[in-house]
Amino acid sequence: MRLKYTPLLVLVIALINLSCKDTKTEQAVTLNLEVTTNSVALFGDGVVSTGLYERDLAISPDGNQLIYTLGDYKQQRRSLVQLDKVDGVWSDPELVYFSGTYQDIEPFYADQGNTLFFASNRPIDKDSTRKDYNIWYSTKTDGQWGQPKALNTTINTEEDEFYPSVSNNGNLYFTATKVEGIGKEDIFMSKKVNGVYQKATVLDSTINTKHYEFNAYVTPEENVLIFSSYGRADGFGGGDLYYSVKDKSGHWSPSKNMGKDINSEKLDFCPFVDVNRNNFYFTSERFVVDSSKINTVKELKAFANRAQNGTANIYAIGLDALELGL
Questions:
Q1: 308 CB contacts (<8 Å, ≥6 apart)?
Q2: DSSP at 252
Q3: Which of 31, 34, 32, 63 lies closest to 318, judged by CA?
């Protein structure tokens, strides 16, 4: 018997097929921030870590939002991306509403998650001639991020300021190259006194060297500093993660390489500690070697666009597997 297809029947079939297709393709975003591992593991494979360039992960203190930097393969365009957890379910990655026009990178939550610091090359005071990176912040109101504002000229100069990190007492750590610095790039700290940032000072030789020191994360209690350095004799390759612990007199101990279990021969950088869920996160340009034969163009495209292809991805390891004094 031949079925006669009326316009109504065609519409019904189309709707059924569409419904089936959506059911098959829609999948809840799977992330579990509570899981800890004893060795370095790729974080958010296919959700956060992909074949693009991901870096600078930050997680809100309550664990219900995360923001990271997403760039194209060559980092010609970089934006802030957020995921929100509502009723136990993670949203799909979306651009932070104010991001997408300029190069917005390196998010950091402060003030119990109500303030978001980040670095950006967006023009200050509508000065379109400014192309340098500065430190900006956005304040949350009714659960939504407000329009970003730049820190004042005590911090921001016409040179670059990168990677803001803030302790519970408000002290700001950041990366810059200044005349008063020690090396080619250094880590600076500005104390916050009565709500006002003071002139930044360069950290001493326990942290900074004549080489490159950058991307410093400070713990909420300001007792551990984790950062990247390139050019040191004990380095493993393209840039390594180091740490320093503050002693009882308030001085930073001589920094130590975090070792081969964390660092690779590629660039390892952008540290972040989720103290509430006991995990350490960082970015790495390491890649997984796969010499298996590729048989089709489709396979080649899939291979090129996989996570761990050498662009950069985000990795995690449990704090208990590290000896950081936390």
A1: 42, 49, 286, 287, 288
A2: B
A3: 34
* Cβ partners under 8 Å of residue 62, min gap 6: 113, 276
Among 193, 130, 181, smallest CA distance to 156 is for: 130
pLDDT in tens, 166-207: 999 999 999 999 999 999 999 999 999 999 999 999 999 999
**Cα–Cα distances in Å, from 4 out to 8, 9, 111, 215?**
11, 9, 66, 67
In DSSP notation, 176-224 reads E--TT-SSSBEEEEE-EETTEEPPPEE--TTT--SSEEEEEEE-TTS-E
CA nearest 144: which of 102, 100, 98?
Answer: 98
SS3 of 7, please? helix
Please give the structure tokens belonging to residue 161. 């300021």
Q: Determine if residue 108 is left, alpha or beta; phi over 0 gives left, psi from -120 to 50 gives alpha, anything else beta.
A: beta
Quote the CA–CA distance of 254 and 243 in Å, as a whole number.
9
233: which residues sit within 8 A by CB, 6+ positions away?
none
Rg (C-alpha) for the chain, rounded Å, is 22
Of 121, 126, 128, 199, which is closest to residue 136 (Cα–Cα)? 121
Interval 249-265: pLDDT, tens: 999 999 999 999 999 99
Cα 219 to its chain centre, rounded Å, is 15
- Separation between Cα atoms, residue 63 and residue 88, nearest integer Å: 11
53-59 and 65-71 beta bridge pairing: antiparallel
pTM for this structure?
Answer: 0.90
Distance CA(287)–CA(53), nearest Å, equals 12
